Amino acid sequence: MDSGALGPGLEANIESMTDTAEQTADTPEAESNFETGVVSESGFRRRRWYHRQDVRFIGVVAAFVVAFQLYGYLTGPSRISSDLSRLMEQQEKIDIKVTAKFKAEAFHMEIYQDVGAIRGEDGDAVIVSGVRPSDIRFLARKYWIKSIELAPSRR
Question: Taking 90 as the threshold, does the pLDDT of residue 154 lie above it?
Fold first, then answer.
């Protein structure tokens, strides 16, 4: 069959396909295409790692967790009363009165028990005794804590 019978457009397409098929990964041109992420044989463009949905999802979740923790670190000191913060520098263990934004439930009581001994309740507040200053800062970073004050003295 005569090559002219195919027509000039189809003949040019066949020639470019054979030229592209002759390129292998060993050629410098193919290597540069690999590095840039563009594959010239099929017009397929590789997606960068940061364009993948799963990577973006993990990034959003990580940003949310960091923002949530940062919120606790920034607002935590404002929940500690000034009298308690002065006493934290002097004493090793302190009795505190913790007021939450809502009534304490089993989960909150477990956290209070981890940091000290629960002595009782005073209205909406829970009195915890024998709490170290580092644990007071830990409690202050919780979003559900409204305020932490010095507990009234024992009778």
Answer: no
The conformation of residue 155, written as its DSSP 8-state character, comes to -
Query: Within its chain, how far is the Cα of 1 from the centroid?
Result: 66
Contacts (Cβ under 8 Å, ≥6 apart) of 69: 141
pLDDT band at 147 (very low <50, low <70, confident <90, very high): very high
Q: Are 98 and 112 in contact (CB under 8 A)?
A: yes
Under the banding of pLDDT at 50, 70 and 90, the label for residue 29 is: low
pLDDT tens digits for range 97-114? 999 988 888 898 999 999
Contact 122, 97 (CB under 8 A): yes
Q: How far apart are alpha carbons 125 and 102 in whole angstroms?
A: 9
- The DSSP annotation for 84-131 comes to HHHHHTT-SSEEEEEEESS---HHHHHHHHHHSEEEEEETTEEEEEEE
Burial class (CB in 10 A: 0-12, 13-18, 19+), 145: buried
Angle subtended by helix axes 106-115 and 133-140, to nearest 10: 150
